[in-house]
Amino acid sequence: xxxxxxxxxxxxxxxxxxxxxxxxxxxxxxxxxxxxxxxxxxxxxxxxxxxxxxxxxxxxxxxxxxxxxxxxxxxxxxxxxxxxxxxxxxxxxxxxxxxxxxxxxxxxxxxxxxxxxxxxxxxxxxxxxxxxxxxxxxxxxxxxxxxxxxxxxxxxxxxxxxxxxxxxxxxxxxxxxxxxxxxxxxxxxxxxxxxxxxxxxxxxxxxxxxxxxxxxxxxxxxxxxxxxxxxxxxxxxxxxxxxxxxxxxxxxxxxxxxxxxxxxxxxxxxxxxxxxxxxxxxxxxxxxxxxxxxxxxxxxxxxxxxxxxxxxxxxxxxxxxxxxxxxxxxxxxxxxxxxxxxxxxxxxxxxxxxxxxxxxxxxxxxxxxxxxxxxxxxxxxxxxxxxxxxxxxxxxxxxxxxxxxxxxxxxxxxxxxxxxxxxxxxxxxxxxxxxxxxxxxxxxxxxxxxxxxxxxxxxxxxxxxxxxxxxxxxxxxxxxxxxx
Length: 484
Ligand code: SAM
Ligand code: SF4
Description:
Blueprint: E1 22-25, E2 34-42, H1 44-58, E3 62-64, E4 73-78, H2 83-102, E5 107-112, H3 113-118, H4 120-125, E6 131-133, H5 141-149, E7 154-156, E8 179-183, E9 185-186, H6 197-201, E10 205-206, H7 209-221, E11 226-230, E12 238-239, H8 246-251, E13 259-260, H9 261-269, E14 276-280, H10 289-297, E15 304-306, H11 314-319, H12 326-340, E16 345-352, H13 359-372, E17 376-381, H14 389-393, H15 400-424, E18 429-437, E19 444-448, E20 454-458, E21 466-474, E22 478-483
Parallel strand pairs: 2-3, 2-4, 4-5, 5-6, 6-7, 8-11, 11-14, 15-16, 16-17, 20-22
Antiparallel strand pairs: 1-2, 9-10, 12-13, 18-19, 18-21, 19-20, 21-22
Helix pairs in contact: 9-10, 10-12, 13-15
The structure holds S-adenosylmethionine and iron/sulfur cluster.
Iron/sulfur cluster is lined by residues 188, 190, 192, 195, 197-198, 232-233, 283.
């Protein structure tokens, strides 16, 4: 299965990160008369959505299963970000076709970005599919499942301007019981020219901070010790009691009680000093010094920022419609170093071979990496997505071999920088939140430090506890240490 979904567009240095393009399936919970199987692809927002979907169906009496053959309802929560991601879903639907031949009563649904992008075309093209639901329509799932069981195919791809599922308490899936994700906003109002997200996830809206704090408190009470606040662009979080739609809130000058991202971070940090707080993703145009100072003020706000650059060249950034240039990006990195110091982890997303990118412009990406010294990056080559601004305006003119060669150069550079950064940690002591046994040995445990680096060390300490660890060795992806 892992081989089946191997995505050649994506070559990660580090797998264990919020933005990693991975897949997850539900586990057997031994509950419920009817069984739900969900397979989720793409970013962490999608995994988080699957937890909301599971919660909605749990109320209807469903339990979860790890086996599609034992399911009454099979859902596939999809990603459209690159062509390869959609192809993977098509292959899985072929596989589920075999399952449906053996069990004609099973209902098969497609959720998420691909459902939103293709809408009724999916029902026409994939005969096995009974329901298609976009990311804002999950409350409709029980109704559509019932209809499908009565033989009627269903679709809802309505994009809401307000929906945040704030009142739904997610059922934690694939959980280690220590770290959890909390969705704080939905949609995206940016229009990066390469990106399909604004079309599949709709307008930006922020979730009521009180419901976020409640969720964080509940997680802490259950033993969780780390929450990651999730959004496509968390620094533009903006909420008021009268309005949660970002665009409308920006236009309305009369609203004075506004909660911004720095305020929200502070509120979550105050839930408990033993609850670590992370967040992802930060857009370079929006991250403010106020956020950096709030991070500095609270020890439990982790010193790690995922700040995707996409390119190191200002002309390419303009074509990408990222709304910042190389100098602006460097200025934000300098502010991070000044306020939070050299040890603050910084990571990026990079796209190789965007339309018209020259060799010199590609070299600018490599030199930006040398300047920033990213701890790790998610690296892709450009994949044209139908309907995006780039697909409409620019020719996808960089040949695949050149895209792949440039991507490989970016990966090689990142690997070298990751090793260089990790070597700097040798001899230093870090507070590590233990997440469980290491995959390498029963005698070892693994966790992460504040800068989000994975540390493996010999110890018999329970997951969810904090340990002080001195780093003794490293690879580009992992630190090794000993308990102090
Ligand atoms: N909101 C985040 C931001 O602005 O950084 C990113 C969200 S997107 C789900 C994750 C990453 O996928 C992007 O940062 C970008 O590097 C990559 N990506 C998006 N569209 C792409 C495309 N058409 N081709 C290749 N990579 C793409
Ligand atoms: Fe896509 Fe840009 Fe929005 Fe990120 S900020 S989701 S890359 S449009």
